[in-house]
Design a protein that fits this description.
Blueprint: E1 6-8, H1 9-15, H2 20-30, E2 35-36, E3 42-45, H3 46-60, H4 65-78, E4 89-93, E5 96-100, E6 105-106, H5 119-136, H6 141-154, H7 157-184
Antiparallel strand pairs: 1-3, 2-3, 4-5, 5-6
């Protein structure tokens, strides 16, 4: 498609497989103002067509219209002068939008940057670290309790109970040792 070409509302609706009324709604939500074409009829640029398509995608993903409007408004404020909105990718992630500029993802409506990790990876690393701590100091009840909570959150109740029992035993042993030390003094 020619990036310099302009598209009538009818052509835009056909390209987006939508109605002309829907195109006008998408334009309002995205803050897109068509340029007057021959005869004064509104026409959209190719970049505006891309913004309309993204707006439709956000709505189709279940992001409320009010939030979509706020996302575009926030992005216009956040982007450097002269940087077009089409220079970033905007994706729906559940009920929120995520912007990506090639360097980092962020939530455009709040401006908060997102950390790129998977919670499951963190839980797995935590479980490994806790098991290592238990092997290193089996008499310390702290890692047992934390591991038992992690296993419970994963849904492994049987393993959670077993680890918790081991932790209770380690605590009793530690308390008994402490009691003996205090009696000697």
């Amino acid at each position: 498609m020619d990036a310099t070409k302009h598209f009538s509302t009818r052509d835009t609706a056909r390209i987006l497989q939508s109605t002309e009324a829907r195109v006008r709604t998408l334009a309002r939500l995205g803050g897109v103002t068509p340029e007057p074409g021959p005869g004064g009829r509104p026409e959209f640029t190719f970049q505006q067509l891309l913004l309309l398509r993204t707006t439709r995608g956000l709505l189709d993903a279940g992001i409320p219209a009010r939030r979509v409007r706020r996302i575009w408004s926030s992005l216009r404020r956040q982007l450097a002068d002269g940087l077009p909105l089409t220079s970033i990718r905007i994706l729906a992630d559940g009920d929120r939008a995520v912007a990506w500029d090639g360097n980092a993802p962020w939530q455009p409506d709040s401006g908060q940057f997102l950390l790129d990790f998977v919670a499951g990876d963190i839980a797995e690393a935590a479980e490994t670290a806790l098991r290592q701590a238990i092997r290193y100091d089996a008499d310390n009840p702290g890692p047992y309790n934390t591991l038992a909570q992690l296993l419970r959150q994963k849904g492994d109740l049987e393993a959670s109970r077993a680890v918790f029992a081991q932790g209770a035993s380690a605590k009793q042993k530690k308390d008994a040792e402490l009691g003996k030390m205090l009696q000697k003094k």
